[in-house]
Design a protein that fits this description.
Radius of gyration of chain A: 16 Å
Oligomer: homodimer
Largest interface: A-B, 35 and 35 residues
Largest sheet of chain A: 9 strands, mixed
Number of helices of chain A: 6
Chain lengths: 206, 206
């Protein structure tokens, strides 16, 4: 029984998930976008930021998202941005399939994260991720362009967006270029926490 | 005691509130965007579409939005699109202040809607609307460009977006051109119904 293919991101109310340049990735707007994440106990644990932290519904959602994920898929830009930024034990703790032209041996990190570099496209990367995930789900981790490729290819089953009360005005839009003639959505869950609203949609073909 | 200045719109998940051209205004995408509205009892009553209809939380929200509104403000394009489309008793039932260059005497309709044509800008129109609304609230009815002008001018206190599970891919974006350096938001309410999620934000100056 195959798992679900999903993505889960924080989005500003005006539709952005990242600033225009990776250099700004830890900038003010992005910090505001992710503001609901940082104080959570699970996030702090997972990045070795120390004990403690909030334990409400936001924390549960972060933990549940992590626990359902048997393998991650990411684009080369997300990998390159993270390669030198993630801690020694990168925060995925699953096999990670990187869609890239770069040929490279698997890169094993402490804590169960192994990056595999897949050179033959998004479908091949997803196939390998499914295989690795077994009954667990596959998360399309990012970035935006990679998520959109999978969505437009009809390969995403479900996704969750944490809508943050933030306006970017510019940057990388999650759904810019979505093929609206092919992708139909059904709202299956909507859950508000103190700062954000977690919207979950099932993807249907039109 | 002055009322609140607010707007309330349906927005697609990718940020659109209208198709690119007014000619498509009753097209398929827009019908999907507003899909949650049409079966509601209050909507049907208000447009004289007959008795009956749904009476859940979506219906209450439509009625509450109507009942709090003591005066409406709209741009000339929304007025021109509606002028020949609204029924004889236009669905506002309040004074409506139209921001326009056109000089024209007030246009009184059956059922309490009178359109006033204001030629000296958005602040003047809002002043007149506040005056007319008394203790009730002023709704910036639309369209998108007018809403954005008020938002960027710091004249909106609060707004509600019904996020519809629809993708447009193109059209008029609600928050395109928002001044993110000036407008800060606080999520004050988030309420899911079967199809959409109603997100309410208070606007704060940065």
């Amino acid at each position: 029984m195959a798992g679900t293919v999903f993505f889960s991101v924080s989005m500003s109310l005006d539709g952005y998930i990242a600033p225009s340049s990776p250099a700004e990735l830890m900038g003010k707007q992005w910090m505001e976008l992710q503001h609901w994440v940082f104080p959570q106990r699970f996030f702090r644990q997972n990045l070795n930021l120390g004990e403690g932290g909030e334990e409400g519904r936001d924390n549960d959602i972060l933990r549940e998202t992590f626990e359902r994920t048997g393998a991650n898929v990411m684009g080369k830009r997300m990998f390159e941005a993270g390669e030198h930024a993630w801690p020694e034990d990168a925060p995925f703790h699953t096999p990670v399939f990187v869609v890239t032209q770069a040929k490279r041996d698997p890169w094993e990190r402490a804590g169960g994260t192994t990056f595999h570099f897949v050179n033959d496209g998004i479908e091949a990367a997803l196939d390998q991720a499914r295989q690795a995930a077994g009954d667990s789900d596959v998360r399309i981790a990012g970035g935006g362009e990679t998520i959109l490729s999978y969505l437009n290819a009809g390969l995403v089953d479900e996704f969750t967006i944490a809508v943050s009360p933030v306006l970017f005005g510019a940057g990388v839009r999650l759904l810019e270029g979505v093929d609206a003639s092919k992708v139909a959505l059904e709202q299956v869950r909507s859950e508000a926490s103190a700062q954000v609203t977690h919207l979950t949609y099932v993807v249907r073909a039109r």
